Amino acid sequence: MPDKIEKIGRNSWIQHGELNQRIYLMKLDREEAVEVISLMNNLARSKKYSKIFCKVPGNKAPLFTANGFIPEAQIPGFFRGEDSMFFMSKFLSSDRLLHIETKELEELSKLLDRNKTQSWDPPEKSEKASVRKLNENDCETMAGLYKKVFQSYPFPIFDPAYILKTMKSGVQYFAIESNNKLLALASAEVDAYSQSAEMTDFATLQQHRGKNYAYFLLEAMQTHMKSEGIKTLYTIARLRSVGMNLTFLRMNYQFAGTLLKNTNISGEIESMNIYYKQL
Q1: Region class of 145: left (phi > 0), else alpha (psi between -120 and 50), else beta
Q2: Whole-model pTM above 0.85?
């Protein structure tokens, strides 16, 4: 079962459940930070979750530090190009930090070093494939593609009704399409208040990988976000997905940190990397 998204306090939002074994503070009302911290601690204890993961405005970060949270990543100028966003976590079980992806973290360090020195020529897209912004009529097909790509996912994107709901709340979906068939997907979760957008939900059918579809989707979404006045783009990318990490680095995104054992995707809880770009 996917984790639940629900309001906590008066106007803050969390996701929590057994799938990710965590609470994810997705949106914090700054006026109730102390109350929300207390509510999350109580909920985590009652559910025996092993991690609380939070997106925290910079001016509230000291309150979270005082309550045992540590910063795992930071995006400067996240809020309208001004205040920073901290990604802060509290680990409630030592088991959560066992068996972290040591080899992959070592490879990430090498990748970040190489990216500073290696030149790269942007790929050319096949004339048969085009990028299209999707609409409500595409939800069922999109859910089918996501089911084929992911064994599990932190949000219920296998459900057409959920995808439709997110569309109506402002999430914008894009696809690589050829002969009226969807080959790859991605989305931009826009937050008008902070003038930011999370570039997420990248998925390419197995038989069409290696064609740089994630690059072309990201390129198109960036252009669209800039036209809408978005100032900050960011992503939470799988540590194990070298291709996705390379895509963001080659598009001049900055590495902001690693969220250890954070997200259940493709069947197990994995570490995730944060990248960001100011437009």
Answers
A1: alpha
A2: yes
